[in-house]
Write a structure and sequence with these properties.
Number of domains of chain A: 4
CATH class of the largest domain in chain A: Alpha Beta
Oligomer: heterodimer
Strand content of chain B: 25-35%
CATH topology of chain B: Rossmann fold
Strand content of chain A: 15-25%
Number of strands of chain A: 16
Number of helices of chain A: 18
Helix content of chain A: 25-40%
Shape of chain B: globular
Number of domains of chain B: 1
CATH architecture of the largest domain in chain A: 2-Layer Sandwich
Structural class of chain B: alpha/beta
Order of helices and strands of chain B: EEEHEHEHEHEEEEHEH
Largest interface: A-B, 28 and 20 residues
Strand order of the largest sheet of chain A: 13-10-12-11-15-16-14
Number of strands of chain B: 11
CATH topology of the largest domain in chain A: Uridine Diphospho-n-acetylenolpyruvylglucosamine Reductase, domain 3
CATH architecture of chain B: 3-Layer(aba) Sandwich
Radius of gyration of chain B: 22 Å
Radius of gyration of chain A: 23 Å
Chain lengths: 543, 260
């Protein structure tokens, strides 16, 4: 695992790559978030056509729940009191950062952002909101990809940013207890000092909070090795919609005493309760990490490489990612690099990472795998990182694809689970469909620039990104429900790891049965009868 | 003997990886070296890249490109990696793990022997290593061999017409362009080039390239360091500043600290 002690590869700040005016606004400096200079902080990557449209305007059929109260100045006075009359904790102006998602696809109309500092304050706020039928959107790092952490109408935004302390760490068991608002990268840096690693890693690590990661059951780059948060989270501190504080942060590896309630909240996307504290079991930090970046000629070769890598690398394999050629072309443009790690173009690329306790052993294993792969023509070309700097560079070619997809203006993201053999066919079918609808092309008149595929193939998880010059209903209706129906036909999941949020709440039926959906609704109504917590998301309660 | 052709020598060093934070050992006289990643010194990597590029651009002018490293057995990793990038052959001068690290002057004396053994006429090495930041080895070697030296190179151009080389050097005021005939020592600076990745086919081929091993004690050089490290300590942590809420408060604080 590369060291967190040093500054991450500082990427140049991006100018929009098209004909319209350059929009780099430093007016929207974000005081709290500048501590970690990351891809997402400080500057917003702007969609080419100026301001973001209000979600309520883009989806006019959506109606604000009538039983929700509207905010009054008395409410604001009350919240100010709860939050020690500190003006930094109660924001009523310049709320674009909180109202917009970072893909600049969704925008809410909240007029109040609260930033409590303690669990008790969160509890008081929720209790009051519940009593007064005031809707609340819990917000972590606001790096979600399905609009799940932004208001739709005038919901109050409750930001977890100020609950950012690491509470304790036991370096015998590896159990970390921390506030929900701790930035993932910071948690990992802390663990690195102690010889441990956070069992989750993803591109937004410099901005996302662990509370949000848990609430969305984030998958990330190392699920292959460390498993899902459903396994590594040992306990949670959650504030229920009525203000009750549920504290199950007892950090026991094994505890079979009753229903495992925390599992309900992991992946609940802030609709059952607000996570304020997390207890995570952390593995020891690997001493030796290797990264190989390979070029292969077909999707079959990708699958073959995966099978063989499991054979040869087995317990040291910690990540297996794939990307198609066009995703690397976008990355190259985005990163403004003159050359790619591999000289020639290949239809597919693979990034393999190994992590182990002994460099010499791992080197031998990796070498024998690579030799086998080259000799048997599974792999055409590749490079191996010689030091940490090259390791970061290679990872960057993979991690930057997500943001690179937005450089032409915006992106439609589909994060899906499909049986591995069929996985890439979705990308091909979508390209054909976009072409049939005459929506994809190289010039400005076409809304779509490209459809690319990449992702955690080791987990059967594809990220299909349709890079667009502008968001439009035309493109959306061409893609949806086509993509979801395709997934259903192949018995896949319409949201492998990004969650349902706002974007996919209407499509849960493609992956879950009516019975399952009904049980979920029952639980939601049980914990949140007034539906105040993150309304209009996750499960459809719209009339 | 084709004495006009280039016989390039690239000395390289294995150091604590550039991205890692060094930790001081318990006896405060060195850094912790167990369980941490070691890699090629970034400036040495640039030297390897430059040597390989010179060969690629002037194949008929270059006879051999040879790398040498003075260090523990594990240094063969960086030699293999360099050969995967295009170095023809290499030598490892093995030091014992228990030996204290050798000073630049001793390294220079060892390199002098290697230069004479290989009849090298162009030595390209990193300007300094990131562990001791001495920036001395290249210059001392030039002194011992009585050769010209061009340090902190940002650009290297061959002039085959008169067997000389133009080197653009980084200096405080900007750039300094010097010209020298062979034999010559060049030390590399950051802007010189961007090292390539070692590709798989070449990594496989490099396994068959010659890597000779010598023991440092066999060279007949006195290995006693003239300098003794008394203590290593971390730099003083920068104290956080304080935020003031008004100009008046700022003036007050400055006066308190007797700065106004």
């Amino acid at each position: 695992m590369f060291s967190r002690a040093c500054q991450r590869l500082l990427l140049p700040r991006y100018l929009v790559q098209n004909s319209s005016k350059v929009l780099l606004s430093s007016k929207k400096a974000l005081p709290v978030y500048t501590k970690n200079f990351t891809k997402f902080s400080n500057y917003r990557f702007y969609s080419s056509k100026g301001d973001v449209k209000l979600t309520s305007e883009v989806y006019p059929s959506l109606k604000r729940f009538e039983h929700f109260k509207r905010l009054t100045s008395d409410d604001i006075v009350h919240f100010k009191q709860v939050l020690d009359n500190d003006d930094n904790l109660v924001l009523t102006a310049d709320l674009d950062f909180f109202n917009e998602d970072h893909l600049r696809k969704y925008k809410g109309q909240s007029s109040l952002v609260l930033k409590p500092k303690t669990t008790e304050q969160v509890s008081k706020i929720l209790k009051y909101c519940n009593e007064n039928s005031l809707p609340v959107v819990p917000q972590s790092g606001n790096t979600g990809l399905v609009g799940g952490s932004n208001p739709v109408f005038d919901e109050i935004v409750l930001s977890l940013a100020n609950l950012n302390k690491i509470r304790s760490f036991d370096n015998v068991s590896g159990i970390l207890k921390a506030d929900a608002g701790v930035i993932l990268e910071n948690a990992d840096a802390f663990l690195a000092e102690n010889g441990f690693i956070f069992p989750l890693d993803l591109g937004a690590k410099g901005s996302c909070f662990i509370g949000g990661n848990v609430a969305t059951n984030a998958g990330g780059l190392r699920l292959l090795r460390y498993g899902s948060l459903h396994g590594s989270v040992l306990g949670l501190e959650v504030v229920l919609p009525d203000g009750t504080v549920l504290n199950s942060l007892n950090s026991l590896r094994k505890d079979n005493t009753g229903f495992d309630l925390k599992q309900l909240f992991i992946g609940s996307e802030g609709t059952l309760g607000i996570i304020t504290g997390v207890s995570v079991l952390c593995p020891t930090r690997p001493k030796a990490v290797n990264v190989a970046f390979l070029g292969v000629e077909s999707y079959e070769a990708v699958q073959k490489a995966f099978t063989e890598s499991k054979n040869y690398l087995s317990e040291i394999l910690s990540a297996f990612e794939f990307m198609d050629l066009n995703s690397q072309k976008l990355s190259k443009e985005f990163l403004k690099q003159k050359s790619h790690p591999l000289d020639e173009e290949h239809p597919f690329y693979i990034l393999i990472e190994t992590s182990g306790s002994n460099k010499d052993h791992d080197d031998v294993k990796l070498e024998s795998f690579l030799e086998y792969a080259m000799e048997n023509e599974i792999v055409s070309d590749g490079v191996v990182a010689q030091d940490e700097t090259q390791l970061k560079t290679l990872w960057n070619w993979r991690e930057s694809v997500s943001e690179a997809s937005t450089i032409y203006g915006g992106v439609y993201k589909y994060d899906v689970s499909i049986p591995i053999q069929d996985l890439y066919r979705l990308v091909e079918d979508v390209k054909v469909r976009l072409s049939d609808f005459n929506l994809i092309g190289e010039t400005e008149e076409f809304p779509v620039k490209d459809a690319i595929g990449y992702g955690h193939i080791g987990d059967g998880n594809l990220h299909l990104n349709v890079a667009v010059r502008r968001y439009s209903k035309e493109v959306e209706s061409c893609l949806e429900p086509f993509v979801y129906e395709w997934i259903k036909k192949h018995n896949g999941s319409i949201s492998a790891e990004h969650g349902l949020g706002f974007q996919k709440k209407n499509y849960i039926g493609y992956s879950k049965s009516d019975i399952e959906i009904n049980l979920m609704k029952q639980l939601k109504k049980l914990y949140d009868p007034k539906l105040i917590l993150n309304p209009y998301k996750y499960i459809n309660f719209d009339k | 003997m084709s004495s006009n052709k280039l016989r390039i020598l690239v000395p390289i060093k294995r150091v604590l990886d550039y991205q890692l934070k060094p930790r001081i050992n318990k006896t405060n006289d060195g850094i912790i070296t167990t369980g941490v990643k070691f890699s090629i010194n970034p400036f040495c990597d640039i030297a390897v890249e430059e040597a390989v590029r010179i060969r690629e651009k002037n194949a008929d002018l270059v006879d051999t490109v040879h790398a040498v490293s003075i260090g523990p057995l594990k240094s063969q990793d960086i030699l293999r990696s360099s050969m995967a990038k295009g170095i023809d052959s290499s030598t490892l001068i093995e030091t014992s793990e228990k030996d204290r690290e050798l000073e630049p002057l001793i390294i220079a004396k060892i390199l002098k022997k290697i230069v004479e053994k290989n009849n090298s006429n162009l030595i390209i090495l990193g300007k300094q290593s990131i562990d001791d930041d001495s920036n001395q080895t290249g210059q001392m070697l030039a002194g011992l061999l009585n050769w010209p030296q061009a340090t902190n190179a940002a650009k290297v151009e061959l002039n085959p017409s008169d067997n000389s080389i133009n080197i653009t050097r980084e200096i405080d005021g900007g750039e300094d362009i010097v010209n020298a005939k062979l034999p010559l020592i060049i030390t590399t600076d950051l802007r010189l080039n961007e090292p390539r990745f070692a590709t798989l086919p070449n990594i496989m081929k490099a396994k068959k390239k010659p890597l000779e091993k010598l023991k440092v004690g066999e060279l007949g050089i006195n290995l006693e360091n003239k300098l003794k490290i008394l203590k290593i300590e971390e730099p003083v942590q920068k104290q956080p500043g304080i935020k003031v809420s008004s100009v008046d408060e700022l003036i007050e604080k400055l006066q308190e600290k007797k700065l106004l």
